C-alpha cells in the first residue's frame, strides 16, 4: 500500500481503507482498519484488554480483504522471508490466509483470485502444519562454480578468485552468506587484498590474493565463529550497542 511505517497512524489507516483493507471507505474508527493500521505502524491505539478472538478475526478478515482487493486489480505475490523466526500468532494468521475458502456447508474451494504465497524458511518443526500440502523447492548449497561467480561479481574481479576460494569453499558448505562474510572479513583484516596487475591488453585488472603466504592466516571453521570474531573487532563504543541488542525489545534508534 506504499507505506514505510513511519507515517502518522491516521494516514496509514486511510491508505489501508482506500486499498480495501476491511472496507472501501473508513478510517481508524473501523475496527478492521484500525487493527491493520496498528500492525503496519507498530502502534497500539486500542485498549490492550480487547477480546483476543475478536481482534484476531478483525486482523484475518482485514488481511483477506486487503489481499483480495489488490489481487482483483493485478496478480499478487506474497513473499515471506525467514519464516522460521515468525511467532506463533503470525504463523496462525498466515495459515488462515493460505487456507482455501469455505462454501456454505464447509466444503473447501480454491480462491479464484491470483495470489501466490512464497515462503522462504529453514527447516523448523513449528512449521510442519503450515507447510502441509504446500509445494516445496529444496535449495541446496551453491556449487563450486556458482561460488566463484558469486565472489567475482561481488568484488568485480576474476583473476585469483578460484585459487583463493580453493581454501575457503570446504569450510563454507555452499552457504553464500558464509562465503561472502568470510571474504569480507579477510579483506578487512588485510589477510586478502585486491591488487592491480597488468593484463594482456596493457590495461590493469584486479587480482584477489593472500597478502601473506606464511601460513599465518587463520580461517574460521563456522559461521558463528566468523561473526563472533568480527564482533570482537568492533570499537568499544559499538560493543556497547551490540550488548544492548539482546535486551532492547525492538529496534534501536
Question: How does this model look, in words?
Answer:
The protein is mainly α. The strands form three sheets. Strands 1-4 form a two-stranded parallel sheet. It has a two-stranded antiparallel ribbon with strand order 2-3. A two-stranded antiparallel ribbon has the order 5-6. A hairpin with a 5-residue loop joins strand 2 and strand 3. Helix 6 crosses helix 7 and helix 6 packs across helix 8. The two termini are 25 Å apart. The mean pLDDT is 84.
State the end-to-end distance. Answer: 25 Å
> Total strand count, please?
6
Shape annotation: elongated
How much of the sequence lies in strands comes to 5-15%
Poorly predicted regions:
none
* Rounded average pLDDT: 84
User: What structural class do you assign from the helix and strand content?
Assistant: mainly alpha
Question: Please, how many helices?
Answer: 10
The string of secondary-structure elements, in order, is HHHEHEEEHHHHEEHH
State the helicity in percent bands.
40-55%
Rg is: 25 Å
Main β sheet profile: 2 strands, parallel
Strand order of the largest sheet: 1-4
Please sum up the structure shown.
This protein has about 250 residues and is mostly helical. The protein has ten helices and six strands. It has helices spanning about 10-20, 30-40, 50-75, 90-100, 130, 145-155, 160-170, 175-190, 225-230, 235-245; strands at about 75-80, 100, 110, 115-120, 190-200, 205-210.
Amino acid at each position: 500500500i506504499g507505506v514505510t511505517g513511519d507515517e502518522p497512524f491516521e494516514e496509514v489507516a486511510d491508505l489501508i481503507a482506500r486499498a480495501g483493507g476491511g472496507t472501501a471507505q473508513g478510517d481508524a474508527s473501523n475496527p478492521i482498519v484500525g487493527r491493520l493500521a496498528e500492525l503496519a505502524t507498530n502502534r497500539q491505539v486500542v485498549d490492550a484488554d480487547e477480546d483476543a478472538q475478536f481482534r484476531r478475526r478483525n486482523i484475518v478478515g482485514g488481511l483477506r480483504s486487503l489481499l483480495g482487493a489488490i489481487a482483483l486489480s493485478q496478480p499478487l505475490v506474497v513473499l515471506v522471508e525467514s519464516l522460521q523466526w515468525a511467532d506463533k500468532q503470525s504463523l496462525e494468521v498466515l495459515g488462515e490466509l493460505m487456507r482455501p475458502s469455505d462454501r456454505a456447508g464447509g466444503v473447501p474451494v480454491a480462491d479464484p483470485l491470483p495470489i501466490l504465497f512464497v515462503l522462504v524458511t529453514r527447516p523448523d518443526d513449528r512449521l510442519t502444519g503450515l507447510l502441509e500440502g504446500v509445494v516445496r523447492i529444496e535449495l541446496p548449497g551453491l556449487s563450486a562454480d556458482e561460488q566463484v561467480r558469486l565472489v567475482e561479481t561481488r568484488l568485480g574481479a576474476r583473476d585469483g578468485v578460484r585459487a583463493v576460494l580453493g581454501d575457503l569453499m570446504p569450510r563454507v558448505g555452499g552457504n553464500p552468506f558464509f562465503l561472502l562474510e568470510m571474504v569480507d572479513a579477510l579483506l578487512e583484516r588485510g589477510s586478502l587484498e585486491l591488487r592491480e596487475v597488468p593484463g594482456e591488453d596493457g590495461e590493469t585488472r584486479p587480482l584477489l590474493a593472500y597478502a601473506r603466504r606464511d601460513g599465518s592466516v587463520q580461517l574460521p571453521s563456522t559461521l558463528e565463529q566468523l561473526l563472533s570474531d568480527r564482533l570482537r573487532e568492533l570499537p568499544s563504543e559499538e560493543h556497547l550497542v551490540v550488548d544492548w541488542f539482546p535486551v532492547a525489545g525492538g529496534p534501536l534508534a
